[in-house]
Specification:
With 219 residues, this protein is mainly beta. 0% of the residues lie in helices and 45% in strands.
Length: 219
């Protein structure tokens, strides 16, 4: 089993102008949602913490840990993606609205996935590693099942499903060329309300109903 250097302490990334509500880390950029603004940091080693504002207010944001792609959701379900993302401009340049309505979105090698307010699941056609990996894709495809939270990884998608009492963890099986949305869901033991795939380390992180944090390694 591989061992990883976990560092020696937590460093407080001070931001005088903001109070963070959510954060998402990409390959070389970190995005944060704060009160009435969305900010990014392209040099996480800069102790001055020069967060830059995009002057847009989002309620949820997802950054790919592979190529810095950014997708976000505004209040009311409006979907946006960051354009102009390159190696030299990791934060991109503009926001572009994408048709559809979601409450949560996730971008990863397996493509762009999302869920709506009715917990229906969607995949953005042609954004995955097995069907073109386009920037914006062509349309939303409905995927069988229902989830309250979804996370896109490398050839794998994990999700959390809300039950009458507690939550259920599901993983999408069969994602491959010819079947970019996979073939079926398989239940995984556990009870998590939020889940996040760590593509770099073949791991998945989650938070349960008591706000406890869990990590699971997978092949």
């Amino acid at each position: 089993m591989n061992s990883h250097n976990i560092g020696d302490s937590w460093y407080h990334m001070n931001c005088i102008r903001c109070r963070a509500q959510a954060i998402s880390s990409g390959l070389s950029v970190v995005w944060m949602i704060a009160f009435k603004q969305t900010l990014y940091l392209t040099d996480a080693n800069n102790l001055r913490n020069d967060w830059q504002s995009t002057n847009f207010e989002y309620v949820q944001i997802s950054v790919s840990g592979v190529d810095n792609k950014v997708w976000a959701v505004k209040a009311g379900g409006r979907i946006f993606r960051r354009t102009g993302v390159t190696d030299s401009v990791p934060a991109g340049r503009w926001w572009e609205q994408v048709p559809g309505s979601l409450t949560q979105v996730s971008v990863g090698l397996a493509g762009v996935w999302g869920v709506d307010e009715q917990h229906k699941i969607y995949y953005r056609n042609e954004t995955g590693q097995y069907d073109g990996q386009q920037e914006v894709g062509s349309n939303w495809l409905s995927v069988p099942g229902n989830l309250s939270y979804v996370s896109s990884g490398n050839g794998v998608v994990w999700g959390a499903q809300t039950l009458d009492s507690g939550y259920r963890i599901l993983i999408r099986q069969g994602i491959c060329t010819g079947a970019p949305t996979g073939t079926h869901w398989t239940q995984v033991d556990g009870d998590l309300k939020q889940i996040s795939v760590d593509t770099s380390n073949n791991a998945v992180w989650g938070v349960d109903s008591s706000d406890k944090i869990f990590k699971r390694n997978f092949d």
